[in-house]
Design a protein that fits this description.
With 302 residues, this protein is of the alpha/beta class. The chain has twelve helices and seven strands. The protein has helices spanning 45-54, 71-78, 92-102, 106-114, 120-127, 134-147, 175-188, 199-206, 227-231, 239-246, 261-269, 297-300, and strands at residues 61-64, 84-88, 192-195, 212-216, 252-258, 273-280, 286-293. β6 and β7 form a beta hairpin. It is globular, with a radius of gyration of 19 Å.
């Protein structure tokens, strides 16, 4: 294990659970996803690496049933933590982007981005179009994701006005960077299996496999949390059903949640272990999230 992965992420805190000493600087984590994704897990990448290392044997497959921006799956593939990844996402707009990648059209999408002259007029014109073609829908999704507040694709999200340094809609529009990420994704696309499908169904599809690990990041609506309802078009989830489904997983899994008493209670009721991990939200406020699994002691011992 290299020194970077040996970093102690779980010093003792009160209450029996453990947490990282300070939030991860997301600027230190290599970006692979074309999305600026609300609720994205860039900050979680070092913890995921440490957990994967603690398992000893390299898993063949990673399943991410609520893929969203897909940073964990992409990291696992680019760093050869796993051989292949299953990504599932029920949102048709986000799904269009991943379909574009796995169907070999990432270079087309990169060229489309490089060739688009972003102005308020061209943006308004493009967003008024309803596309049936997956490639064009994927482009429209990336465009919307990069020009809406916080990258939010849910209905009601507004277009940036001022943005960073007064750049407005161009604040997060980095065509060269986006094109490079998509070109890189085309090199590993054959290792991705994508499904536009309900996440819990996907968990059951792969739960019997011993060579498979799961990273489960459901929309945060448990315990009365409202963030998921504001951020995502598909936010309704039976969290108790999700926890019961995780009991069927024969391999290893990590699940992330916003800190809530209801979540902690479900983890205890289903016999799962949990830890706290600090992160910073979009307002740079420090807060703890919860990671849940079967075998957190593996992390503590490394």
């Amino acid at each position: 294990m290299d020194l970077y992965r040996q970093t102690a992420l779980f010093p003792e805190i009160s209450g029996g659970a453990k947490a990282a000493a300070k939030p991860v600087n997301v600027a230190s984590v290599h970006q692979h996803s074309p999305f600026r994704y609300p609720g994205g897990k860039t900050w979680f990448v070092p913890t995921f690496r440490k957990w994967a290392d603690s398992l000893g044997k390299r898993p063949r497959l990673l399943v991410e049933p609520f893929a969203g921006g897909g940073i964990i799956s992409l990291t696992a593939l680019f760093e050869n933590i796993v051989e292949e990844a299953v990504m599932a996402e029920i949102d048709s707009e986000i799904a269009a982007v991943w379909k574009c990648v796995v169907e070999g059209n990432a270079p087309w999408l990169a060229d489309r981005i490089l060739g688009f002259d972003l102005t308020h007029e061209s943006l308004a014109e493009e967003l008024q179009v309803t596309h049936n073609d997956t490639k064009e829908k994927a482009f429209q999704t990336i465009l919307k994701n990069r020009t809406c507040h916080g990258g939010i694709l849910a209905k009601g999200s507004g277009i940036l006005k001022h943005g960073e340094n007064g750049k407005g809609i161009r604040s997060r529009w980095y065509p060269i960077t986006l094109a490079r990420r998509l070109t890189n994704l085309s090199q590993i696309a054959y290792r991705i299996h994508f499904f536009e499908k309900d996440g819990i169904e996907v968990i059951h599809d792969y739960s019997e496999r011993n060579d498979t690990i799961f990273f489960i990041d459901p929309p945060y609506t448990a315990g009365g949390k409202r963030a998921g309802r504001r951020l995502y078009n598909h936010c309704e989830l039976d969290h108790e059903h999700l926890f019961k489904s995780c009991e069927t997983i024969k391999g290893h899994f990590l699940m992330t949640y916003d800190r809530a008493d209801e979540v902690i209670e479900m983890a205890k009721n289903h016999g799962f272990d949990f830890r706290y991990v600090p992160m910073k939200n979009t307002h740079h406020a420090e807060m703890n999230e919860i990671i849940i699994g079967k075998d957190m002691l593996l992390l503590d011992e490394n």
